[in-house]
């Protein structure tokens, strides 16, 4: 199978799609989104891409912050069908179906770990960014992955599914940005029990075990 998703990953997202709302629907996503919005680029009146959009969480926020036009792109059609108030494109984030310099902003939430090659991913993003444009992305922190925390969800039958995820270290991401002629402006780490503090079932044990572990990485870069 070509593209940035393996068949196993695509099958997981197809199963997840009916239960996946276009909002930050758990404590980790709410902490991630808060950090993303703190570093949100200027998008009013500018073309923007929600890359690997899922059900369109960041497409909605781009629309609310008056980006125009807003394009939402994802490889999983059942996810993409939920994205609203934007132009929808089904495709691979490793081969973006857009002309060079098409966007002033690219936003990508919790998706870089699905790229087989972070250098190729970064090069494609840089290609479609206009001069002076911004890339803002988040991902599960490589240290959390190395610690053994999986990316998982429960389906409608309460069965747990683990989504395959590549661990791209921060050094690799930094090198990829430099190779793509992107200048990193912000690196933000969301840490368990410090930035992520919201209560949830069994959260006390979770926070005690993983206190201080960086669980989400937020990066902003400029072309």
What does this structure look like?
- There is one protein chain.
- The protein is an alpha/beta fold and 223 residues long.
- It has a single domain, classed as Vaccinia Virus protein VP39 (Rossmann fold).
- 31% of the residues lie in helices and 25% in strands.
- The chain is built from eight helices and nine strands.
- Strands 3-2-1-4-5-9-8 form a seven-stranded mixed sheet, with helices on both faces. The protein has a two-stranded antiparallel ribbon with strand order 6-7.
- Helix 5 crosses helix 7.
- The longest helix is centred in the N-terminal third of the chain and has 12 residues, at 27-38.
- The protein is globular.
- The protein starts with 6 loop residues before the first helix and ends with a strand.
- The mean pLDDT is 91.
Please give a quick description of this structure.
The protein is an alpha/beta fold and 223 residues long. 31% of the residues lie in helices and 25% in strands.
Strand content: 15-25%
The class by helix and strand makeup works out as: alpha/beta
Q: Helix coverage percent of residues?
A: 25-40%
CATH class: Alpha Beta
Report the CATH superfamily: Vaccinia Virus protein VP39
Count of beta strands: 9
Strand line-up in the sheet with most strands: 3-2-1-4-5-9-8
* SS element count, helices: 8
Distance between the termini: 31 Å
Q: Segments where pLDDT lies below 50 for 5+ residues? A: none
Q: Looking at the structure, what is the overall shape?
A: globular
CATH topology: Rossmann fold
- The overall average pLDDT, rounded, is 91
Order of helices and strands: HHEHEHEEHEHEEHEHE
Oligomer: single chain
The CATH architecture:
3-Layer(aba) Sandwich
Number of domains: 1
Q: Biggest sheet: strands, sense, closure? A: 7 strands, mixed
Radius of gyration (Å): 16 Å
């Amino acid at each position: 199978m070509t593209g940035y998703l393996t068949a196993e990953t695509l099958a997981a997202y197809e199963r997840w799609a009916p239960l996946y709302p276009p909002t930050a629907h758990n404590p980790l996503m709410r902490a991630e989104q808060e950090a993303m919005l703190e570093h949100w680029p200027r998008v009013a009146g500018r073309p923007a891409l929600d890359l690997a959009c899922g059900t369109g969480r960041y497409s909605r926020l781009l629309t609310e912050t008056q980006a125009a036009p807003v394009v939402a792109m994802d490889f999983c059609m059942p996810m993409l069908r939920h994205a609203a108030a934007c132009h929808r494109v089904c495709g691979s984030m490793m081969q973006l179906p857009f002309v060079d310099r098409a966007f002033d902003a690219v936003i990508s939430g919790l998706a870089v770990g699905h790229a087989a090659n972070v250098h190729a991913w970064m090069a494609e993003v840089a290609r479609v960014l206009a001069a002076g444009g911004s890339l803002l992305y988040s991902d599960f922190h490589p240290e959390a992955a190395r610690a053994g925390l999986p990316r998982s969800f429960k389906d409608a039958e309460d069965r747990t599914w683990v989504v395959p995820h590549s661990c791209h270290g921060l050094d690799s991401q930094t090198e990829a940005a430099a190779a793509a002629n992107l200048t990193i402006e912000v690196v933000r780490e969301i840490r368990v029990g410090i930035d992520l503090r919201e209560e949830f079932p069994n959260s006390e044990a979770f926070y005690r075990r993983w206190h201080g572990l960086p669980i989400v990485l937020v990066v902003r870069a400029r072309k």
